[in-house]
Specification:
With 185 residues, the protein is mostly helical. The chain contains 7 helices and no strands.
Length: 185
């Protein structure tokens, strides 16, 4: 991680803040056929040409075998590294209706507990593991920190902690992400 990678966590926090408001309605239909469909189309429109380019770069020629190989590259995110964001966003949008129901019925205390666990297991443990070159055996069934960021955005908008009052939320989110990534780098 570097100082320049604060944008995606901030985007996911803002996504959580916008979609997970208690008064916001999020339908299964919209999540699948509106939001996820757009991301899936972007993956197809941009991912297939990138997959063909990667396949051509590896083989140096065109053949019919490129078609299934390019599709395998697209499915396995083996084209270009900047496409990872679309796969992550597609997953978040597909799970958004479930997450929204959870957020609407979750108490502040339970949400803070879950946020603490997600932060520990998906942010702190991986950083310690990578920094100290050790394996930490404790695991959650969730291996990504982006669920934490999404829920954190929902937490900020629904429970308004003291640091988020009086218009300081955006400044806090950007500063917290910058400080976090500087420390983690």
């Amino acid at each position: 991680w570097s100082l320049m990678q604060w944008g995606v966590p901030c985007f996911v926090i803002l996504t959580g803040a916008l979609f997970l408001k208690k008064e916001k309605s999020v339908s299964l239909h919209d999540c699948v056929f509106k939001y996820a469909r757009r991301i899936f189309l972007a993956l197809l429109i941009f991912g297939i040409p990138f997959a063909f380019l990667a396949e051509y770069a590896d083989t140096g020629s065109f053949s019919l075998q490129m078609i299934p190989n390019a599709l395998i590259r697209l499915i396995s995110d083996n084209t270009f590294s900047h496409m990872w964001y679309l796969y992550m966003l597609l997953g978040l949008y597909l799970f958004l209706p479930l997450i929204k129901v959870f957020m609407d019925h979750c108490s502040r205390r339970v949400l803070e507990y879950i946020l603490g666990l997600l932060f520990l297991f998906t942010v702190v443990f991986p950083v310690i593991s990578a920094s100290c070159n050790i394996t930490i055996a404790f695991r959650l069934p969730v291996e990504t920190c982006y669920l934490f960021y999404l829920l954190f955005g929902g937490y900020l908008v629904n429970y308004k902690p003291k640091f988020a009052q009086k218009g300081r939320l955006a400044v806090f989110c950007i500063a917290a992400c910058c400080i976090l990534f500087v420390v983690l780098s």
